[in-house]
Amino acid sequence: MAPGDVLALHSTLSNWGRWGDDDQLGALNLITPEVTAAAVATVRAGRTVSCARALDTRGAVDNPNPVAHHMIGTATEGGGADYIALAPHGFATSHIDALCHIFHEGKIFNGYPVETVTAHGATRLGIHHLQAGIVTRGVLLDIPALREVDALEPGEPIFPEDLEAAEARAGLRVRAGDALLVRTGRWRWRAEHGAWDAATLAAGLDASCLAWLRDRDVATLGSDGVSDVLPSRVEGVVMPIHTVVIVAMGVHLMDNLDLDALADACAEERRWEFLLTVAPLVIRRGTASPVNPIAVF
After folding, report:
1. So what's the pLDDT on residue 147?
2. Domain of 226, in residue numbers
3. What phi-psi label fits residue 6: left (phi over 0), alpha (psi between -120 and 50 degrees) or beta?
4. pLDDT tens digits for 248-278?
5. CATH number at residue 104
């Protein structure tokens, strides 16, 4: 896509004002009580699967700010206790972005000015607005399985026709209020080939998928990468999926998930839909939270 075409999507795909001038939830408003109840009703086996990576305390080229885990209570102190510090954004920690995370032309989602993100936190669209959690139908579109490979190569793009082919393979259709998870096989590739700079080279969605995502009205989008293909293939626009999906569409993104166990479970259950629960930490005015999404079959 041309840069001008991507920039135009900020208007044509916009959800600004759709849920009111004071909206703090964006596309999560699509998860109505009826949507949640229908998702809960899909549970049959009671099998649960985590979609998160373990918090990584080891530095690497794709983890320059590793989690700090210090023991402040051991046998010496008479009880176990920890101190944990982390920077949730980046390319290592499984996290969900708040809608205040990305700026575009001086605005964040719903037209709030970027000045609402202050040195004391975000006064609009902070992650604490998700304190009731996300409970909806999750759908996994497994692109490596579609292409009959273990993992996509870093930098390999995913197009709308791939998403539709993965839907057909799974026997379902992504619909309004869904949590869409797109697997690239990143962690299997890393296990075989080692760490690389995922900030510059990553498999993910091409910008041409943006209209498809808006048409399907997904409530939240997650990936084992950062959703964007990197490089973006759009000159001058580094992360078009992040920018348009968060700022224009108001869709919370979940980055750096681990979807390998989920893919295995889906294949075993022969179901690529499930109940998905996501419970961000209640970080007042925060721009993100680490998460451990749980799929229930």
Report:
1. 98
2. 3-54+91-296
3. alpha
4. 999 999 999 999 999 999 999 999 999 999 9
5. 3.50.30.50
Q: Quick check: is 63 in a domain? A: no
Q: What is the pLDDT of residues 206-224, one digit of tens each?
A: 999 999 999 999 999 999 9
Residues with pLDDT less than 50, the chain: none
The total of structural domains in the chain comes to 1
Tell whether 188 is covered by a domain: yes
Cβ–Cβ under 8 Å, residues 79 and 73: yes
